[in-house]
Amino acid sequence: MKLALIQSDIHWHEINANLAMYEEKIWEINDNVDVIVLPEMFQTGFTMETSLAEPMNLTTFKWMRQMAAQKNTVVTGSYIVKVGKEVFNRLVWMQPDGQFHTYDKAHLFRMSSEGQYFDEGKERLIVEWRGWKICPMICYDLRFPVWARNSNLDYDLLLFTANWPAVRVSAWDALLKGRAIENLSYSIGVNRVGKDGKEIAYNGHTSVFGPKGEELAFSEKEEVILVELNKEELDRYRQKFPAQLDADAFTMNDKKL
Q1: Whose CA, among 36, 50, 149, 207, lies 20 to 30 Å from 159?
Q2: Dihedral sign computed on CA atoms, order 136, 26, 164, 100
């Protein structure tokens, strides 16, 4: 599977400007890729301004559907979505045939009072795509290993879309690597760069790790990172090192794995 990871600066609260910027970057991808990954809140920056929320099937949703169809690939990333009276930090997984899946951020970032503005997601998402099982999550979810637990090898790739500040990037690096090792899977984190409207700095560190913790890609600059993952290598490693068979059993009370 080949992925294009778009590590970019983000125009603060400027939805149309960001969609135009990403469209240009997407059209510069000459390789045929299976998935294009955008950062968390890719068309606004990480904000508590819920007036920027869109209902499903409006501007950003239609843009994602158009990009996916034109490039024959999945386009995924999160943005602010309103459903009735609820507002979510929602990842949309848009396939080229127009079919889509959604994941609502389950762990809302307490230190920014995200839970006061957004509703909490309750269910984990695992999608099957071109022979792979992929579990997409959002930023702060990375800190919670139980939520990412791959008990029965339910997924092959754990994917995080994020706005993770530079001041805490050492945790980002360590946790992405740890999630790959403990879950016998590939782990990818796609972050942003630049400064947001609150002068918070981001230095990227978009990274790809293999199941043994090996670093397969890393970047600190604004760019599109292309990475190719090998399912046969993953399967061989899992056969030689089936650590999941010794995993501790557990249940979740308020969220659904």
Answers
A1: 50
A2: negative
Q: State the catalytic residue, choosing from 105, 114, 177, 182.
A: 105
146 phi, psi to nearest 5 deg:
-65, -40
Give the whole-angstrom CA distance, residue 20 versus residue 166. 26
Decide if 40 is catalytic.
yes
Here the tokens at position 242 are: 């089936």
The Cα 98–Cα 117 span in angstroms is: 29
All domains in the chain, ordered by first residue: 2-244 (3.60.110.10)
The question of whether 14 is a catalytic residue gets the answer no
Catalytic residue among 82, 114, 135, 139: 139
- CA-nearest of 141, 100, 101 to 125 is 101
Per residue in 192-228, pLDDT (tens digit) is 999 999 999 999 999 999 999 999 999 999 999 999 9
Whether 157 and 186 have beta carbons less than 8 Å apart is answered as yes
105 is catalytic: yes
pLDDT band of residue 255 (cuts 50, 70, 90) is confident
